[in-house]
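Case study 2.
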Amino acid sequence: DLTLYLGKRDYVDHVTAVDRVGVSFVQLACAFRYGSEDLDVMGLCFRKDIWFEQTQIYPESNKPQLSAMHETLLKKAGDNAYPFSFEIPNNLPCSVSLQPGPDDKGKACGVDFEVKTYLAMEKNNPDEKIEKKDTARLVIRKIQYAPSQVGAGPKADICKSFMMSDKPVHLEASLEKDLYFHGETIPIKVKINNESNKTVKKIKITVDQTTDIVLYSADKYTKAVLCQEFGETVDANGTLDKTLSITPLLSDNKEKRGLALDGRLKDEDTNLASTTMLRQGVEKEVLGILVSYKIKINLMVAGGGKQLLLIVWFLFLHSDVTVELPLNLMHPKPEGIFSLLTHISGCLNYPC
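Prediction:
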């Protein structure tokens, strides 16, 4: 029997470093899958390795310095256990999966990390065929938590004039902070000064997720993860100063194919993908998938003035006023996160 033990399956990207993973060989690979596993069987490979590292653990060649996690796993695994450790570079992407459609089957596309251990007959033969019964695999996740301190929120404003109206509509929107947690209510402060002769009929707020697949092509697309209308009206020469609240959730977007999600283990539930936090000096292509969000606040404006032609009414009577705000979505840092190991630690149980 070949048994793989890991102390945990979530490994944290602290920006400056990443938790470390801790013959027989063991390898850790970060890969991007962009096609069905069924196509792999047909001889078409839709998996690209972003990073790969391998080490020999039996016969022992480079025994790692034992951590507290190693000691715990060695007691669990028994006498024939061999410890190992990997260090994940901090320039690798976090785990992201693209939501499959209702009829899609197999492994989801996206960026994943996998620890694999196997038994080989030869030490250095990359062409050796490894039997499935001589292999043990375990998917892990690289995740990133929100910084301990958040900054001031963004603000945007616009002043828009309309045909057949002497004065404009002013719109200002702002957020209290620059980062929000998944599932947290997001209050948006909206200020409207309607100096025109038109009426603001309603306010529409949209949250868009933009997914930029930078690894293998310039594939960039945007999907709305929230679209909510508010019935507030502002008459001609009127004002409005109000806070409107929204909460973008994956539960409202389960049917949207291709939506970026945080990486998942097996079939457990997850959430919308966290915003990609770019580091200085890191090439975007290495990150595989970049995820960003923006909030659009749109005023639906209508009415005012006598129109002479129907076409003029159609083109100019109904118009809108829009501003956009960047949105960062992430997970809060759990208490005691700094006490976690700074390496991925594990051990292999291999009866000699």
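The first helix runs from residue 37 to 41.
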